[in-house]
Amino acid sequence: QKEVEQDPGPLSVPEGAIVSLNCTYSNSAFQYFMWYRQYSRKGPELLMYTYSSGNKEDGRFTAQVDKSSKYISLFIRDSQPSDSATYLCAMSDADKLIFGTGTRLQVFP
Amino acid sequence: NAGVTQTPKFQVLKTGQSMTLQCAQDMNHNSMYWYRQDPGMGLRLIYYSASEGTTDKGEVPNGYNVSRLNKREFSLRLESAAPSQTSVYFCASINRPGANNQPQHFGDGTRLSIL
Predict the structure, then answer these.
(1) Which end of chain A has fewer CB atoms surrounding its CB within 10 Å, N or C?
(2) Residue B98 pLDDT class (50, 70, 90 cuts)
């Protein structure tokens, strides 16, 4: 079993929809949680960074961490075609950083 | 401010050829990383350098060597390329030495095909 599981998609939604992206993990020592966005033929760029449990909001993006369920989510409100990309979750126990496989999102006009 | 720069962007090799992938960062970061990204496998760490003068193996080091040339530059070498090394290679860096819980800054990758 992988330490971090992420549905690869693709996920296709209409413009304006609310998008929910998720990852599950098995290592209870993970305390640092990140979401990266990766456009085609580009490197990943950090979108959200959270420590421990709870919610964090930044504009149209909200990151949620539920450590009791070992489950993290990224919500995108009012999705735009420019949000079309692959979204990777990543998490760390301060010793190592593990990435999910990424979910490909397509937002169509 | 270029951030993390990788060269070349694309390369095609024949089995058995050798090649060095270059990475340079201009953010004065201490730690640098090499990953490979394959479909369905995500980003996997090949080697990293927590600080100038040190290098360590990651999850998938076999078939690769690295050199931390100075604080700015971290190269990845394939001594005898194999088709299984066909992948997209990413270099990344962070400021705090060995702080693996910190967000990393990535280059745009080198797409390597081995025939």
Answers:
(1) N
(2) low
